[in-house]
Amino acid sequence: MGHAGPVANPKSNKLPALAPSRHFHLTTQTVAKAATHADLERVVKAHGRAGRMAIEAGFDSIEIHMGHNYLTSAFLSPKINHRKDEYGGSLENRARLARDIGRAVRDAVGDRIAITAKLNMDDGVPGGFWIDEAIQVARWLEADGSVDALQMTAAAPCSTPCTCSRATRRCTSSPRS
User: Fold this and answer.
1) Which of 145, 153, 2 lies closest to 72 in space, CA to CA?
2) CA 103 → CA 53, 64, 109, distances in Å?
C-alpha cells in the first residue's frame, strides 16, 4: 500500500499529485503540489483504513511502499523535500511521515497480519536520500514496532534525466556528489 506522491499521474484520478514541496515530474510532465498538513493527516489515516481493509479481505501480510519516489520516499529525500516545518530539514523530521504511516497501520492491524515496508537505501541522485540515512530510518521503524520486516530497494525512477533515458550507463557521478 502506498501513496504515489510526486510520481502519481494527476490525469488518471483528476487530483493533483502531492509532494513534500512543489515538484516537477519528468514522466507525467506535471507539477505536484506541496502537501498540506490536512493532506498528510488524510494520507496517514487512509493507510490505517487500508490496513483494516486488508484484514477484512483475508490478507496475512501487507507492504507499505516507502521507496521509489512515492510520497514517503519523497519526504525522506532532501533532494525533493524543501519544507521548513516539522516534516522537513533534519532526517528525523523528513522521516516523520514514514513513521506516522507505519504507526497508523500497526495501530489499525495490531499483530493480526505482518507488516513489511519497502524502503529506499539510495535515491540514486546527487543530494538525495542515502544509505546512512536509510539505516537510521530502518532503526526508527524497528524501534517504533511498526514493521515486521523491511525490503530494501534503491533508486527513484525519473529523479534525473539519466534515470529516464536509455543512456543510464553515461551517468557516472556519485549520488553524494
Assistant:
1) 2
2) 16, 11, 10
- pTM, rounded to two decimals: 0.87
Alpha-carbon gap, residue 146 to 65, rounded angstroms: 13
Q: For residue range 7-63, what is the model confidence (pLDDT) as tens digits? A: 898 888 888 899 999 988 777 788 899 999 999 999 999 999 999 999 999 999 999
Catalytic residue among 51, 64, 70, 71: 70
Does 87 qualify as catalytic in the annotation?
A: no
Q: Which residues contact 107 (CB under 8 A, 6 or more apart)?
A: 48
